[in-house]
Amino acid sequence: MAGRVSTPGASVVSRVFAVLGAFDERHRGLTLSELSRRAGLPLATTHRLAAELVGLGVLARHESGRYVVGRRIWSLGLLAPVQTGLRELASPFLHDIFAATRATVHLAVREGTEVLYLERLRGSESVPIVSRAGGRLPLHSTGVGKVLLAHAPEQVRSEVLASLRRITPYTVVRPEVLSAQLERVRRDGYATTADEMTLGASSVAVPVLRGAEVVAALGIVVPELRRDRQRLVAGLRVAAQGIGRVLAG
């Protein structure tokens, strides 16, 4: 578990980070006992740290008794260079795509073996969306994730291919199939998905380059891609090139 600390005599800082690390995309709200177990800390220690973090606004506690990440963490996260620089520079281009398509638009980067969503502009309510700005999703089941995975170091690709998880009946979980898809992404310059993360949602994404380096992925989520794929790819490429020029200064 991400937040687990089992070393005797661990510092206060490491214990605080163990508590914060207990939260993830699938564990957004935790009871005290769940928080204690996932952090690998004694219940009394967890209770004391959680109470202090609630007082500081780092955690919040619902009426149900569950703890969630507080607004202060989100506010601090927005100050990170990867958030402020890329997100702000890309914003006009994301809004241009959104205005032209009225579809959900994503800007994302890779963090380890997951997609980190820097921005999400929500489109049609008829398309199911599970992403959120600041949230993380698997690389292998999202359009932006496949772009980032295709251009990730070999070690990252190997780690992802060795632990593919089925999310819907259409999620690609055969390593040889995903490897072939990633090769096409590198060759064609874009990635697509269909019902792989959420049923009823398809996506298309392209890389954002700073020079020769892929620094992010830009994507759109729509009900289906059969008619508009090339038009959406063309629009995304124009926007990605614009972001790349701005990043290059």
From TrEMBL:
The keyword Transcription regulation is annotated on this UniProt entry: yes
Coiled-coil stretches: none
All copies of domain IclR-ED, residue ranges: 72-249
Annotated protein name in UniProt: IclR family transcriptional regulator
Example GO BP: negative regulation of DNA-templated transcription
SMART domains, per database record: HTH_ICLR
Pfam families: HTH_IclR, IclR_C
GO molecular function, one term: DNA binding
Residue span, HTH iclR-type domain: 10-71
Sequence intervals crossing the membrane: none
Keyword vocabulary terms for this entry: DNA-binding, Transcription, Transcription regulation
Keyword Transferase listed: no
